[in-house]
Amino acid sequence: MNLTLKIWRQKNSQVEGQMVEYKVTDISEHMSFLEMMDVLNEQLVNKGEEPVAFDHDCREGICGMCSMFINGEAHGPDRGVTTCQLHMRMFNDGDTIYIEPWRAKAFPVIKDLVVDRTAFERIQQAGGYISVNTSGNTQDANAIPIAKEDADLSMDAATCIGCGACVATCKNASAMLFVGAKVSQYALLPQGQVEAAERVSNMIKQMDEEGFGNCTNTGACEVECPKGISLENIARMNREFMKASI
Questions:
Q1: For the chain, N or C: smaller number of CB within 10 Å?
Q2: What pLDDT, on the 0 to 100 scale, is given for residue 134?
Q3: Considering all CA atoms of the chain, what is the largest pairwise distance in Å, rounded to the nearest integer?
Q4: For the chain, what is the radius of gyration of the CA atoms?
Q5: Each residue of 48-72: pLDDT tens digit?
Q6: Whether the Cβ atoms of residue 131 and residue 186 lie closer than 8 Å to each other
Q7: Where are the alpha helices (DSSP H) in the chain?
């Protein structure tokens, strides 16, 4: 395939960025999107130009680093996949592809397609953990019976990889799907009950301080989440917050 790429280039968060057009040729439909970006960067390096900066790590849909806004969609036109799992067969020969970084006040651009997502880490540090004494006092795994439905829902919430697609696709740049998932994975288990009230209060407070917008239930976050995190987790977080407030 021969493609036209319009890519957001920005030196850092202090300077204005712009869309820059590039041409790539002989792209295989079996390539992943990041492999296509590698081909482009190799061409740029060979010409003595600055390669396009973008985040990537595992390239297996696990780490959540490969976050790109492609043709107006977080992680591109496919569903249930991250950018590194997106294949070029989703595009046609001659297509023009627009590639941008996540756009949110809480995710400032570091360079080109790379944004600072440490706001998520600070939210996690505010309460996304449990305090368990593991110094020789651990219980047997089956000592606390947990309903299978609760265990399954907790595991579903825990699949969130913190990529930020929910923020990028939300018109309000809301992080409530992310926070809802991180609250839910503990709220559904007995191990998470000790700090439940403190956890949800602190994480929501930190979310607001980071500058994320509010949720208006448009559902775009769930649609474009690569792990299919359900909106039910936002409802559960709201219930947990109400209980904590009372």
A1: C
A2: 67
A3: 63
A4: 20
A5: 999 999 999 999 999 999 999 999 9
A6: no
A7: 33-46, 118-127, 148-158, 165-169, 176-187, 196-210, 220-224, 232-245
Q: What is the mean pLDDT of the chain?
A: 95
224: its two tokens: 């474009």
Task: At 167, list the tokens.
Answer: 């923020």
Give yes or no: residues 149 and 210 share one domain. Answer: yes
SS (H, E, C) 55-104: CCCCCCCCCCCCCCEECCEECCCCCCCCHHHCEHHHCCCCCEEEEECCCE
188 and 217: one domain? yes
What is the mean pLDDT of the segment spanning 33-44?
98
* Claim to verify: residue 55 and residue 82 sit in the same structural domain: yes
Domain encompassing residue 68:
3-110
Residues 6+ apart with CB under 8 A from 51: 40, 41, 44, 45
CA distance 195 to 132: 11
CATH classification of the domain holding 37: 3.10.20.30
How confident is the model over 154-183, as pLDDT tens digits? 999 999 999 999 999 999 999 999 999 999
- Same domain as 165, residue 56: no
